[in-house]
Recover the amino acids of this structure.
């Protein structure tokens, strides 16, 4: 059974930092694109950051560029999201995701992703 288990998140003040982690089990994703998405109340799920299979290519939404960093460890089968200079508009439920197909590029929409984490609440207070 394939699982993506998230950790991290919580409540932080504006300007603070949080780190999200996502650990995969049941199969390796060392050849697969992984990403982080978020969904705020009343809004659609949107891409935050994506990393290709070897970490050589990344994509960031404009709203988080320069503040968030995505990274992966293919030995540990994990993907992390370091979030700095957090703003109230970053408040959302964050999800990690993984693509079933190997060696795809940085996929910026939710459709290609086959596996999803359970979601983690991030709340940034003003």
């Amino acid at each position: 059974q394939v699982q993506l288990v998230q950790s991290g998140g919580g409540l932080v003040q504006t300007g603070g930092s949080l780190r999200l982690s996502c650990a995969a089990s049941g199969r390796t994703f060392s050849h697969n694109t992984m990403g982080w998405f978020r969904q705020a109340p009343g809004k659609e799920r949107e891409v935050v950051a994506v990393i290709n299979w070897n970490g050589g290519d990344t994509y960031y939404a404009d709203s988080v560029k320069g503040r968030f960093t995505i990274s992966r460890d293919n030995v540990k089968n994990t993907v992390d999201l370091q979030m700095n200079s957090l703003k109230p508009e970053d408040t959302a439920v964050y999800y990690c995701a993984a693509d079933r197909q190997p060696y795809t590029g940085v996929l910026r929409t939710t459709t290609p992703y086959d596996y999803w984490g359970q979601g983690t609440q991030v709340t940034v207070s003003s």
Remarks:
- The radius of gyration is 13 Å.
